Structure formats: C-alpha cells, structure tokens
Amino acid sequence: MFSRGKDMRVVFSFVGILLLGSHSVLAWCDDTQKQVSLYDRLGGLAPISVVISDFIDILGHDVVFNANPIVGDAMKRVPAPYLKYHMTALVCQAAGGPCLYHGREMNESHAHLGITELEWGRMTALFREVLVKNEVPEREAQALLAIVNSTKTDIVDPG
What we know:
Elements: H1 4-20, H2 22-35, H3 38-42, H4 45-61, H5 69-77, H6 80-94, H7 106-110, H8 117-133, H9 138-149, H10 152-155
Helix pairs in contact: 1-2, 4-6, 4-8, 8-9
C-alpha cells in the first residue's frame, strides 16, 4: 500500500541517472528525501484515512479498551465516522499534510473519560497492529507513534 512513493523515486532516480549522470542525481535524491514530509512518505490522505478507519473499527470493539464504562459509553455514543474524520485530519495535519484539524483540544475532549495507563497501552498496541497490517514502513510507523505519544499527557488521567 505504501510502496508507490518508493517505486516512483526509483523511476525518477533511473531517469535522472540517464539524463544527469549518477553523481548529481544521487545528491538530488538525498536532498529531496530529507525534505519529504511524513504525509508524503505515507502516500497522502488516502492511506492515512485507511489506517485511521481500521484503527477506529478495532478500537471500538476492543474489550480491554472499552472495559472502562465511561470510555465504552463514549465509543458507542460518538459515531465512528465522526471520530475517523477528526482523527484523519489530526494525523494528516501532524504529518505535514494539507488538512486542518478543527476538533477540540486533546485534554478537553478526553478529560472526562478517565483513561488509564492500561487503556493507553492497549490503544497504542492496537495502533501498532494496524500499522503492521497496513504495511506502514518502520520509519513512518515510528513517526506516527511519536505523534500519538505526544498526546499522552493530554489524554491519560494522572489520577
């Protein structure tokens, strides 16, 4: 799913070698690759939305994550397409894409849920499983997990 960008870089590199010579194109590829956003490395909005959709589907039915009755009720009450839309926009924006997240702040939307370390751990484990299932390369998977982990203090109840 995520190999299209890599395949295109190979094609461009090959054409560049033919046109410019190997030394200059290799330098160009190194510079270009350093500047490519996570959003672009993931393949854009479509692959991001697939990962988020799969994640919300799994999360909504997970017994461990939903054992907290407040979380379970919220997952039933808030429509999955609404969560998918907002989470996709959030990840797209955080990954350097053109989307703008217009939802509430993480601490505001999660404060009343009482999410525990156990539930957080389960959620991140499920997210990792979805990344593997969708064949997200390790470098990009780690970057996505870093984005998720940056929200932990706003989501997990310190009590």
